[in-house]
Amino acid sequence: MNKKQKLMLKRIIIASLLLIALQFVPITGVLQLICFLAIYGIIGYDILWKSWKGIRNKQVFDENFLMAVATIGVFALAIYEQSGDYNEAIAVMLFYQIGELFQSYAVGKSRRNITALMDIRPDYANIEVDGQLTKVDPYDVAVGDIIVVQPGEKVPLDGIVLDGKASLDTSALTGESVPRNVVVGDEITSGCININGVLKIRTTKEFDDSTVAKILELVENATSRKSKSENFISKFARIYTPFVCYSALALAILPPLVNQFIWQVGANWEIWVYRALTFLVISCPCALVLSVPLSFFAGIGGASKKGILVKGSNYLEALSKIKYVVFDKTGTLTHGVFQVSAVHHNTLAQEKLLEYAALAECASSHPISLSLQRAHKGEINRNRVTDIQEISGHGIVAKVDGKYVAVGNDKLMAQLHVAYKKCHSTGTIIHIAINNDYAGHIVISDVIKPQSKEAIQDLKKAGIKKTVMLTGDRDSVAQEVAHELAIDEVHSQLLPADKVIQVENLLTAKEKDSNLAFVGDGINDAPVLTRADIGIAMGAMGSDAAIEAADVVLMDDNPRNIAKAINIAKKCMSIVYENIIFAISIKALCLLLGAVGIANMWFAIFADVGVMILAVLNAIRALNVKNC
Amino acid sequence: MKRNYKIEVDCANCANLMEEATKKTAGVANAVVNFMAQKMIVEFEDGQEPKAVMEEVLKNCRKVESDCEIEF
Predict the structure, then answer these.
(1) What is the pTM assigned to this prediction?
(2) For B2-71, CATH number?
């Protein structure tokens, strides 16, 4: 609690105790009135003062003013009726203040909770000066400086590992609990926690441009992009308060006049004025206006805990209405890295064949060569290889251990007049001939991510109508991937511009109130990401381009997070709707019951504060995303 | 030109009122008040001096919510 809140709590306690005590003191008349007025002053002086300032600034429908009018009005009625019942006015003010206190406490608390969730801000960076480590503010570290991160510390800035190796806990960024290992030469992202090694890092970015600063800024500002529900509520609030006030005025004047002149019965002014004052008590739309942004704030905070960054409340709302998901294949559903997926050898052992291929390709940095080198588990001794000759578009011929090895595609084999076997597998086929004898082939393909299949199933469970895959890859590869993952529609051999056209076709074909999401790795699909209703970029750790282009950013590259994001959004939106409907209907009910005289002012203030408390508690529920 | 300011405001409806008041201030092209983050993003019209405009913004905001704060 801050100072303001503590003062308010004291005032509430003192006023309540005095009010109770006063019930047992047998005083009447003017003295009694003075005592009650004193308590009223203790609990309500700031409201009175603010409403006075409001009047001077011509802000008539200010909530303070309305509370002041309502409570003073009740006081006046009690004096006029000589009932001596001043409790009501004070109680109304008291409950109103309790409600306000609760609200400000709850908001402050959830704000702190959510900021704590995103506790990735590093407090310091270690810089080595004359062999001694000194702690400095991460802001003061320049690009190219060398920092040291010890076990248990947060990596303060993005950089490249110069020395040491360690496991990193990336869960605060990605929600993924499996540690990530880094060695010399690896890029390292700020916000990770070094678990076990000492790392020397050369920074590549200033703090303001580092991943941590970007993420924090993104999450903090996310609620500035307001959703339709929020805009609806603020419009509603603008109409609601004046409407209730004018209704109150009408209620105070019209029925008594009708009674007096048309029905010729008593005017009963005090009854109708009292009912009108009850209206004023429920005229403040605060519960509603508060609970909606609070729900979004909690939902966005909860999602970011899972490594899902939603750039605005409006995007969270749009996420919940996704019915079509369009994927880019490479890097999204597949690893985007070529891997040896099969070795079809004939006479040689599988390992031996791979070894020859890797040795022949040892000097090349082509992605296919690299994948062959990776697949060969042993060491590559370049001294065994001589006379390397790269035949562009065909492959490589080289001498390995004195043997004449040719590694390449169909064309190379044809050129060398080697009888090769066709392969039924999809992917890139690399044939190998040793001394002009066919030795077998290796299949290299992009490997499907292990979670992709479940990701598609999750999406179906989340109510997605159709999944579509777009790829620049060959049709056979695309069909196989789509078949394995059970994707509904595939378009292959597309250029980047074709992907935009495909997405546009899907956008025109879909129903009006459903949304289409495009999921990509954010590297070269920026136009499609912006064209779709929602652009989702995956595997964004350390990729600024992806964070920039997308509306929703998945820090991890696990495609299952897409369904998770949709579920979080759905949960958050249902909380928002619950709160809107609940708060509006309770208010409407109170107005109705107040107008016919069933609900008195006690009832009204209880309902008002109660709705607010329930709505706030419900909103905070959006923070819990464990089961999404 | 867009600028981000830290604000202090107690109630959500007051934050909405502040947003309205800021939008109506001369020299302000657009404004968003983020109640949860306690921040205000003000977009100024071309050629306006932010500091001078913000003086007016604070004055107008104080009219709708007397104990609000804007740091600029």
Answers:
(1) 0.80
(2) 3.30.70.100
